[in-house]
Amino acid sequence: MAAWSVSLVLPAPALSNSIAPVPAPTDTVRPAPQEMPLEIPAQPLREALTSLGHQTGLQILFSPDLLADRQSQSLSGRMDPAVALSILLSGTDLAFDMRDRVVTIGRMQENPGFLPGLAVEGRPMSAGQAARSPTPDRSVGKTPIPVEDRPQGLSIVTGEELDQRDVQDINGALAYSAGIRPIDYPGGQGAIDVFVRGFRQSSESVMLDGLRSGYNPYGIEYEPFGVERLEVLKGPASTLYGAMPPGGAIALTSKRPTASPFHRLQLQSGSHDRRQVTADLSDRFDAEGTLRYRLTVLSRRSGTQVDRTPDDRLYVAPALSWSVGEETDITLLASYLDFRKMGAEQSFPASGTVQDNPYGRLDSSLFLGYPGLSSYRSRTLSAGYDIRHALAADWSVSQTLRYSHSRVGYLSSWAASGLLEADRLYRFGLQDRPKTSATLLVDSRLQGALVTGPLRHSLLAGIDHGRYRAHETRRNGTVVDALDVFDPVYGGPYGWDTILARDLTDSIRQTGLYAQDEIAAGNWRLTLGGRLDWSHTGSVGRLSGGPLLERTQFDRAFNKRAGLAYRFEDGLTPYAGFSTSFQPNSDSDVQGRPFSPSRGTEWEAGLRYRPAGLNGLVSLSLFRAVQRGLTTADPDNPGYSLQTGEVLSRGVELEGKAALGDGTELTAAYSYTDAQVTRDTPYPGEPDRTGKRVASVPRHAAAVWLRRQIEEGAAGGLTTGIGLRYVGATYNASNSVRVPSYLLVDVSLGYDLGRLGPALDGAGIALTATNLFDRRYFSPGFYENSVFYGNRRAVLATLSYSW
Prior knowledge:
The protein is mainly beta. The chain has six helices and 49 strands. The strands form ten sheets. The chain has a 24-stranded antiparallel sheet that branches. A hairpin with a 2-residue loop joins strand 9 (about 120) and strand 10. The longest helix has 12 residues, at about 45-55.
């Protein structure tokens, strides 16, 4: 054969040897199955094998002539390296020989002793069976490409990281990523509240399994135990996903059936009388693994740091994957989520929290609601499918669909402002706002690869459509007596309005046509994309008993994206990109004319570095983003708006992850964000926000997480982790209230009980503590003179058993 090419040799845990039960003329030896998290996008096969070497520590030998112009499939999830090799080589005439940690790639007909796939119960797995990735790639880009080639910032949180930190909500999942500012809200706000690059992200910017999560923020909740992977694509993502803020897209991937059987049970107890049990089970129905299932279940009863506030939930998510022949994969996904929280708004007064109060400090456990009339319960049922069919050569078609129905009961306690009367009296009102909604989402895609001269194209074209319909009523109520926040006495007289404040049926229809071409030429990578969207929104009903309201609005927008990257041989990749976004406005001016969508643009440049000999990646991003056409007050017509608002955000982000060897892993992030209002028109007597910093967004933020897994010695089986999170000072919208910076410490400690004896194999225990030193911290609240209390110290103990 020709001269051999060798992948990088990286530190990795030693793999024991065993004879694979595959009949062969030679003794082919491969490591015993040892699953590990792997992430390799579709790309040239040579680059995919090199990436596999980076992630597993395997030394992979191959002839460059064998891999010319060959493309690989994508793979994502936990799997045995031999399964990953089978996936990457499927559809080719290539096979592999694995001895210890050295892999040799050759032609199958020339090397009959090489493995075409992984042995399963004494029989070789066919290439088609091996090609089914246990968790198909659901990256934000829809056509997965190597992280280095993406011309924009990206943060990835794997399922393994979620387990290591025992993440309890999406805010916790994002806490160690650069440029992302989660707003902690004890008791649970339901709707996601996260700032990305200075822009507030709503539920419509959250993707679940490649589809928009929905349009109903109060009916949507995300259970991290059901998430396999989380990604944040920073900067405008409208070219692939349509309407959303310019900060970026947050993409979640649900747990799916795995290639190898997997079973885990967990019992958890901890702060606030928490009691939780979970089950995560995956197996196959047949010996070949063509039909596989996964069942994810969570049941919890718990209090929170806020008095009279539960955090109860039931989550059930079955999934079924079916490989139909060699070309078609079908995955059915369903979930049911029932959660119960509080309905109190919990916007604490600034006085007594971040400002002095003559009566002292407010307690973080203070309940700012009316017992029995402050509750929040949501029940959501969803079901859908993901179908992928391979066509000739490197082309495939796929379709993803999900239908969901949500029923929300929301008795809210809310305040008109954060100001106290006589420095201690908090006055609030009530609102009963039940809501039911139904959402249908579908995305159909054609993707493939072709070569035109020296250019290699990864093409994507698709159409997605969303329908949403919801009915909501709102009835306001009055609580007669104010609440003494320093000596609360609950109850007292209250009353409900006889006329509904709102009785509306809302509908949304959105359709988008999109196309993208990712072009490789030598070491250059060029990404071009465009999308045309049509949006139709309507409302029918009455406000405050008034006349019948019928409002319809049509919007159309075209968005584009372009990016360029160059991959140096030493692992350095500079890139630059430009992208746009749009977000519909439901408001109208004094003459009743609907506003056009707000528009966002961003320029970005960055640098990624994957050091030779180190399993790690460091990313540096510089960006400038503007959102124009935001609604502001009409000073000449109170109660109406103008479309003159503008926000500018500029910043720097630095993020890195690395396996340092000897079982040590490091995650670090830093961000500088200068987000400010550049145009505003206030009402007379109200402050002009022009030139003010955007509320809740700190200039400086940093985080670091260090984890060590000890394999040998007296401490063998012990895993430790420690994290630091720093968030700089923030302000309210008018910048009149300053919220101080804070530094939090998180720790984790785990032990493999199997080290104590064979009878405990598969058992483990873990202890985690967030905000270990119980630091008091705050975030700006809903109103000018209000704040949210941060999460106090929480300690959780988890007993798990896997088999």
